[in-house]
Predict the 3D structure of the following.
Amino acid sequence: YADRKVDGSVKRTENRPLANGEVQANEALSLFSLHILAAFFLVLMLNWQTMALSVVALLLAASYPFMKRYTHLPQVVLGAAFGWAIPMGFMAVMETVPAYGWWLFVANLCWTVAYDTMYAMVDRDDDIKIGVKSTAVLFGRYDVTMIVALQACMLAILLGVGQMIDASWPYYVALVISALLFYRHYQFIKGRTREGCFTAFIENHQVGLVITLGLLLQYWLA
């Protein structure tokens, strides 16, 4: 909804339902309201601490789409919005957020900024023309370097988290495989082509899957 007037000027998004008129603005707002209402009823089932954290989640999710008009760091806000589920999950189950929970949040933030910068690289030429801001525009010719640095930070933090939770070998194997996947992403993005950057962005789900499987195997063996 927030991008309905700019999506038509971007090659990747020109056929989105709101941009091409397939869906009307009032229909999108109605669906958004329904989602918020459903989320509100769900959070009422949790403790008050998680309810308090959900207010932050709502503010992050609602403000993110507008950030590209005011800052070159909308990817950071997106990372915070996605990652806020981590402290909320800990609070809902443990009624506290341990130190490694916050480190997981930071790791997820680094990862999100990295892969969403790949995504922004796809649209960078169009974004510059229409005045939309992003980390891809901000980083400029250092975009690939910054992505690699963010990926390295993510892996370093997860390595430290593994020490905090006394993780076993499947977890660390998952991190090694993730590093190899990141190297594969580098091969796609180093040429800065639209197709390569988009492919690297899409393949990031494999990293999340590998780490999840590593954790599941670790707890299964335990």
Q: What stands out?
A: The chain has ten helices and no strands. The CA atoms of residues 64 and 135 lie 14 Å apart.
